[in-house]
Design goal:
This protein is of the alpha+beta class and 509 residues long. The chain is 19% helix and 27% strand. The chain folds into 3 domains: 66 residues, no CATH class; 92 residues, Pdz3 Domain (Roll); 278 residues, 2-enoyl-CoA Hydratase, Chain A, domain 1 (Alpha-Beta Complex), CATH 3.90.226.10. Helix 1 runs parallel beside helix 3 and helix 6 runs parallel beside helix 7. The longest helix is centred in the N-terminal third of the chain and has 13 residues. It starts with a strand and ends in a 16-residue tail after the last strand. This is C-terminal processing protease CtpA/Prc, contains a PDZ domain.
């Protein structure tokens, strides 16, 4: 354990003596009790967490060269390094105020790395209600609307559904100042005060819905699949809400069914998908485009220190031919649709791996984006733990090697991504080809041909002859959502197994 010791000096009584003059009479002093010298107390300052954070970011962080305190020559001696960590005895303050780049929006951490592992696998403590939050008119009042319900959750058994609206929690009206504490606080149970919309006006009702958060809720990211006939077109619809490793075999089976039923077009719905595994994104993109394993899907760019260590075999990620073997997949051959065009529904709740699929496919097929501008996350991350011999890279097979005194998980941005054409400039989001907001007054049923965003994609597929009015009464102008509130949801997770090992991580002794 790396510790640093500080000595605290205790204040004691100081005996003073009187000056004596030779002419003064000698006065015999009474015997005084001897005063013990002050005892120095040692306070142990644990810097293991700070050491883990600094070491990891100094090597891997994409903006390492932009952060003064992460410079390789920041400290002249080991003593100076340890003194710095000791002075910054609050790890969170050290990380957020001194080690992270000012423009970094997506690095996150947790004092329990298992929380981050579970999050990437779609496991959370949740009541199963996925909702968006918007302002009421030009006020600071907030209302929520239900986007969808997670299957087999507490909310799935309650009288609440997509399109329902609420304006309060536990009898308190929602506003900009209180919605975080009321909806995202430590309260595992809360009661929603429901509302209704009439003539574009939101009004409270007497209806209440009480919801309970349950530990370990697993969301199936494959939310809806349908085959829709429109005119002479047969359209496959696939709604995918998170890129979770282990779902590749099931996706392959769905696309095999699409192919067996001779679909002519595909609508991929990523409107609420904030990202996930890059390897899963490669499988989905290959199911759409083809298993051309010599075609580049995306390339990763790292900081100067790491980039110099890697060749193209590490940075280049290609389309794939199988589901792989990760997380229980069978390595089955992919049944690709080999489509020349795909329609993708994406919104301000679409990010990272979702954007990667869109950008990665564009050099090869026509990608028609229906919806609104996406979040803009052209960056990748990896989960790190305090395991220096493993390069601090999280490996489920090395959990017994993680420092038992430091259970932190750190997921920093370590790369930027670009497609085969070298395009990576979408930090402001991807703009739609066909712009259409979700309408709070008419969210529709996901997977139904009349749901507005899907209906607009279908209209584009069958031609402009089937013109329909898509006027939006109350657009979904998000200020937050059940997913967006947590920054760890917007992720592009790179393959941990391909990261460098402890040979590159040089822990200070």
């Amino acid at each position: 354990m790396k510790k640093f010791f500080l000595s605290l000096l205790c204040l004691g009584l100081i005996a003073t003596s009187c000056n004596k003059n030779d002419d003064d009479p000698i006065i015999e002093e009474e015997e005084k009790e001897e005063i013990e010298p002050p005892v120095e107390e040692e306070e142990v300052v644990d810097i293991e967490v700070q050491n883990f954070l600094w070491q990891t970011l100094n090597l891997y962080y994409f903006w390492q060269g932009e952060v003064t305190d992460l410079a390789d020559d920041r400290f002249d001696t080991q003593a100076a390094y340890e003194a710095y960590l000791t002075e910054n005895d609050n790890p969170v303050d050290l990380l957020e105020n001194k080690l992270l780049f000012s423009e970094d929006r997506f690095t996150f951490y947790d004092e329990n790395y298992r929380e981050l592992v579970n999050s990437s696998a779609g496991v959370s403590k949740s009541n199963g209600l996925q909702f968006g939050l918007s302002l009421i008119g030009n006020t600071d009042d907030v209302f929520g609307y239900v986007e969808y319900i997670i299957k087999n959750s507490d909310a799935a058994g309650k009288d609440i559904k997509r399109g329902d609206v609420f304006i309060g929690v536990n009898g308190t009206r929602l506003n900009r100042d209180n919605y975080i504490s009321l909806l995202f606080g430590d309260n595992d149970t809360y009661t929603l005060n429901m509302a209704e919309i009439n003539n574009n006006t939101i009004s409270p009702t007497d209806k209440e819905v009480t919801l309970n958060k349950v530990e370990g809720l697993v969301e199936d990211p494959i939310h809806v699949t349908e085959i829709i006939t429109a005119g002479d077109r047969k359209i496959g619809y696939f709604m995918y809400n998170q890129f979770v490793s282990g779902t590749e075999d099931e996706m392959n089976a769905i696309f095999a069914d699409f192919k067996a039923q001779n679909i002519t077009d595909l609508v991929l719905d990523l409107r609420y998908n904030l990202g996930g595994r890059g390897s899963t994104a490669a499988v989905l993109a290959s199911l759409i485009y083809g298993t051309n394993t010599n075609d580049l899907f995306y390339r990763t760019r790292y900081n100067d220190k790491l980039q110099s260590q890697f060749d193209s075999s590490f940075t280049d990620n290609y389309f794939v031919g199988t589901t792989g073997t990760q997380d229980g997949n069978s390595d089955a051959a992919l049944t690709s649709l080999n489509l020349p065009q795909v329609y993708i529904i994406a919104t301000g709740s679409s990010a990272s791996a979702s954007e990667l699929v869109m950008v990665g496919l564009e050099p090869y097929i026509n990608v028609v984006h229906v919806g609104t501008t996406t979040i803009g996350k052209n960056q990748g991350s990896v989960l790190f733990v305090d395991d220096p011999e493993g390069g601090n890279v999280y490996d489920p097979e090395r959990e017994d090697q993680i420092n038992p005194n430091v259970q932190w998980g750190l997921q920093p941005i370590i790369s930027k991504v670009e497609n085969a054409s070298g395009f990576s400039d979408y930090s402001e989001g991807l703009n739609p080809d066909i712009e259409l907001d979700e309408d709070i007054t008419n969210l529709g049923i996901l997977g139904d041909a009349n749901e507005p965003l899907l209906a607009r994609a279908i209209q584009e597929i069958v031609g402009q002859g089937a013109k329909r009015n898509f006027e939006v009464q109350i657009p979904a102008n998000l200020i937050s959502s059940s997913k967006l509130h947590n920054p760890r949801n917007a992720t592009l997770l790179l393959n941990n197994g391909r990261m460098p090992t402890g040979d590159l991580l040089l822990p200070k002794e």
